[in-house]
Amino acid sequence: MNILFWSGGKDAYLALHFFRESHPEAELKLLTTYDESTDVVPHQNIPLTEIKEQADYLDLDLISVGLPSNCPNEIYLERIENALNELEEPIENLIFGDWYLEDIRQWREKVFSEMGYSCIFPIWQKDLNDLLPILLLKPVEIKISAVKKEFQSLLKKGESFDQKLVMQLRRLNNIDPMGENGEFHTRLIFKDPETLDNQPLIPGSR
After folding, report:
1. Measured distance CA(124)–CA(11) in Å, rounded
2. Closest by Cα among 40, 30, 98 to 67
């Protein structure tokens, strides 16, 4: 069993795509943490109900882990470990959608290796030109779900994350076009499968 840490946004979707591409037969579950006082995924600003709808669409089981507001790392890790320990199947890998932040990757590898888990990063340091076609050409819409205050003059909540926006962001020096530093976050909107001629969204999904 492999566990993909699922935010409901584009990075998790990309990690899912590339993991499925290289491991089409691997068993997979999603894991999402959320603020237990609001039932909303922090940072992404996505309701847990919407995350559950995404998991249903992808035909994947969802492990949801409630956290207190402004959760410290110690409680985060404790609750994650408890949730993973409840699974009956042995866990092969924990999967993350990190792109290039080395300190975040090193932290994940350290804390989860101490729990006995290995981590994989399917989109790690991939070229932006390899990532964007997955987001822009697949039957999924990407919307901005949250924007840091200092970037709200450049981005608006609800705006489409599309090729035009990415090109605009690439011309700026103070914002990552993928929001890797937390400048903005995104949410997925899956299109009606009945309009897609029954083509699968991701290899290995339904």
Report:
1. 11
2. 40
Secondary structure element (H or E) that encloses residue 140, with its range: strand 140-147
Length in residues, the chain: 206
Question: Is 201 a member of any domain?
Answer: no
Q: Name the domain count of the chain.
A: 2
CATH, residue 68: 3.40.50.620
Among 3, 4, 8, 13, CA closest to 131: 13
Query: What confidence tens digit (pLDDT) does each residue in 114-149 have?
Result: 999 999 999 999 998 899 888 877 789 999 999 999
Q: What is the reported pTM?
A: 0.89
Q: Tell me how crowded residue 7 is: count the other CB atoms within 10 A of its CB.
A: 26
Domain that holds residue 76: 2-120
Residue 41: the pLDDT is: 96
Q: At which residue do the structure tokens 């579950």 appear?
A: 29
Phi, psi of 74, rounded to the nearest 5 degrees: -60, -45
Check whether residue 90 and residue 7 sit in a common domain. Answer: yes
Q: Which of 56, 91, 120 is the last residue of a domain?
A: 120
Identify the residue whose tokens are 């999904």: 205
